[in-house]
Design goal:
Helices cover 73% and strands 3% of the residues. It is mainly α.
Length: 317
């Protein structure tokens, strides 16, 4: 494991290549996103812990995956958002060589885990629409959901472990204000395609299937739950596909402009910030829980408040 000599040296090379206006914007953006990400995801995890049985009336496996989406976002905030916010303010990498190495390999795990959780949630929703909700719910238990979540986290962590064991060069990238495994490494591209690219295509396929089933075959199944899953999957694909494309383009000889690297480091943050907002649009109870928390518990939650409309599904039963 060696730092590439052609790269910037952590802690020494200021990011003067970024215009000061852009640095100021990124500093404010990353700090605000870091605070919002931590607060909102802790709130989501707390709400799901207290109200799992009513949140969109999901099965245990989907609920555990939704809960661990919040966990992966908190890990993302610690591994990527905090270093990027600090680096954008300081103008250089200040955490040292070892932290640069850890940052370059660990940042893949939370994003990959999020992808796997979304695949499971979307797959279960497709099965519910294509077959029956009772069929899936009867086979979805809390014990199975915990085992599945642990397996998904293990597979996601495998991508970081493979990069660490391969002993690749790593470098500090001033444009995206974080450390990267050497982009010329074909091994990194193989891991990226295998662990992330192919599953991303699978998510796109499942999302397309779900939309076709809900719109063409079973329009009465396009409820709040399906809407949330579709919105989350579309947003995730839109914020991660450009990053994969940029890395593949750079690997196979294409010139990667510096502004695309800034885009690469900020796009996924949009997904992390927007996800709690999506919850408030489809779930009344979570919106009331959020307002009640912001009001320090002084606002009384309305009695008889319905979590989300499910009249259509209940009529089908």
């Amino acid at each position: 494991m060696e730092q590439n000599q052609n790269s910037s040296t952590p802690g020494l090379d200021p990011i003067d290549m970024l215009p000061w206006q852009l640095r100021l914007f990124l500093s404010v953006y990353f700090v605000a996103a870091m605070i919002f990400c931590f607060f909102s995801n802790v709130l989501i995890a707390d709400y799901l812990k207290k109200s799992r049985h009513v949140f969109l009336q999901m099965d245990p496996i989907s609920l555990h995956c939704i809960h661990h989406l919040a966990v992966s976002d908190i890990i993302f905030q610690m591994i990527r958002l905090f270093p990027m916010a600090t680096t954008s303010i300081a103008g250089r990498w200040i955490f040292g060589d070892k932290m640069c190495f850890l940052n370059s390999i660990l940042k893949f795990a939370p994003c990959t885990a999020t992808l796997y959780f979304l695949i499971v949630i979307t797959l279960l929703q497709v099965c519910k629409v294509a077959r029956s909700e009772e069929f899936i719910t009867s086979r979805s238990t809390a014990r199975r959901s915990r085992i599945l979540v642990l397996i998904l986290w293990g597979i996601a962590a495998l991508s970081s472990l493979l990069l660490a064991l391969k002993d690749l060069d790593y470098l500090y990238q001033p444009w995206n204000m974080e450390c990267e495994v050497d982009e010329t490494s074909s091994f990194k591209i193989v891991v990226l395609i295998t662990m992330f690219g192919v599953p991303l295509l699978l998510l796109l396929l499942l999302l397309t299937t779900l939309i076709i089933l809900c719109c063409a075959c079973c329009p009465n199944r396009f409820d709040s739950r399906a809407t949330l899953i579709v919105e989350l999957s579309i947003l995730f694909i839109l914020t991660t596909a450009p990053s994969v494309s940029i890395k593949l383009w750079g690997q196979y000889g294409g010139t990667v402009p510096g502004w695309t690297r800034v885009l690469d480091s900020t796009l996924y943050t949009v997904f992390v910030v927007a996800r709690p907002v999506l919850y408030t649009t489809v779930c009344n109870n979570f919106k009331e829980h959020l307002i009640n928390t912001l009001c320090c518990g002084r606002r009384r939650v309305a009695q008889g408040s319905v979590d989300c409309a499910y009249s259509t599904i209940r009529e089908d039963r």
